[in-house]
Amino acid sequence: MKHARVAWAGAIHSAIADGDQLRLADGTRLAEEQVVWLPPVQPGTIIALGINYADHKKELAKELTLTSKDEPLAFLKGPNALVGHRGRTRRPADVVFMHYECELAVVIGRHARRVKRADALQCVAGYTIANDYAIRDYLENWYRPNLRVKNRDGATALGPWWVDAADVPDPHALELRTFVNGELKQHGNTCDLIDDVPALIEYLSSFMTLSPGDLILTGTPEGVVNVNPGDEVVCEIDGLGRLVNTIVTEGP
Amino acid sequence: MLVNFDSALSIHDALAVPAGRAAAEDRPLAAWRSTGAFAPPPIATAYGTLLNHRDALAALGDAVHQPPHKAPPRSPVLYIKPRHCLAGHGAAVEMPADADALEVGAQLGIVIGREACRVRESDALAFVAGYTLCSDLSVPHPSYYRPSLRYKARDGFLPLGPWVLAARHVPDPDSLEVVVLIDGREAQRYSTAGMQRGVARLIAEVSSFMTLSAGDLLMLGAGPAATLARMGQTVRITIEPIGTLEHRLVAEGVA
Q1: Domain ranges of chain A
Q2: Which partner for A81 in A156, A162, A199, B191 could form a disulfide, CB atoms 3.0-4.6 Å apart?
Q3: Chain B nearest-CA residue for A154
Q4: How far is it, in rounded angstroms, from Cα B79 to Cα A148?
Q5: Residue A80 and residue B73: Cβ atoms within 8 Å?
Q6: Three-state DSSP class for A167?
Q7: Annotation: CATH topology of A1-38
Q8: Angle formed at CA A61 by CA A55 and CA A62, multiple of 5 degrees
Q9: ipTM for the complex?
Q10: Could you tell me the pTM of the whole model?
Q11: Best to test chain A binding among B149, B152, B155, B218 (most A CBs inside 10 Å)
């Protein structure tokens, strides 16, 4: 099942996506364009991974100081960063390079503390798509990636919905694609994750408790390019859907 | 005198009078001794600020210009403590088995009272609900470049409280003395006056790209030098007129 959160007719609703329609709890059926899409999860802790695809690591090699890594490069985000499907993300006027990052996002479904790899997928409620924008102009080499790059208001699109884990038989065989104004720019497959979903859950739960509603954004493959106001950025993952976002100029 | 608790934010409306000081210290501690640890104030998201004290940054010397940093920080150096870090006054915090000591980042916690987005420095204090005490714990780590989450984001690694003191009782948050006792001996004493960015300026700079919501915690930053605490030791942090926060460090599996 596909679980969405939407605003419609003056209230916030949970909704199930059914074909090209949304069904509210009371049976009301709505078209995609009739609602305002909210991030499908009201998140607890949001964990994101840097450089978790081998090809993206190569792509960033010039600016990376690290030569090898012995543990996942995880960082945290606040709830202010999230924006739903068909949302807008602001590009500051003074920057040169802002890029999208299409990522498989894991929705945690039960408490996880010191979970072993073999049991890790039992803690997963489902999966969704994240587009975790970064503004490289603001990158500083202190507690990377600094929040001004990676925790800006509305710069992490999430959705359109989350899909039950039972409907995603193998989370490590999913194609990811990002289109900018209809043109394919980024292409990868979750089979190339350096640390896969069970490895990430085992690693994170070794020192912190994961709880229902926590999110793990698993990182992005190569193929990130600059985007500008007016660009429509669509992130697609097999079986999970397509997440649409539009870049706009930062307001006053 | 314990006057009022705002249920939404647990705002402790203590009166900062000499008689009230004694009460604010003794009564909650007495309650804690009989009932166990306090619950932490109900914080939404906890944001920390690193190297805000001028002497802390100065202590790095020329290293700030060397790789991997290449330049001193321009924006506030921020990090997030996830929800499972939060612990209350009186907490027993588990130390990881492979750590000899933990770094105690004793500091002022700013609790946001209403949504703060692109706030001007001159208006910023009006967005503060109150202040609390924070013991931001870390496994000591050498690098400020890209440290692992396992140094700072461990369960229980942010004892805070015992309460949030309403902002009107703290007229100048940029001249508070922070005193840290480890097992009763003074380990650190510094003033929030030494910060590169004071409370209002920090809120203004952070809210320029990141909206702070009611209930969010923004930590002002730790003192000039690292304070270490070891297994079995008790950490006691006092910032008047807010109060005193106390917690212990125990072995993994003991709490």
Answers
A1: 1-38, 39-249
A2: A156
A3: B210
A4: 11
A5: no
A6: helix
A7: SH3 type barrels. (2.30.30)
A8: 145
A9: 0.91
A10: 0.90
A11: B149
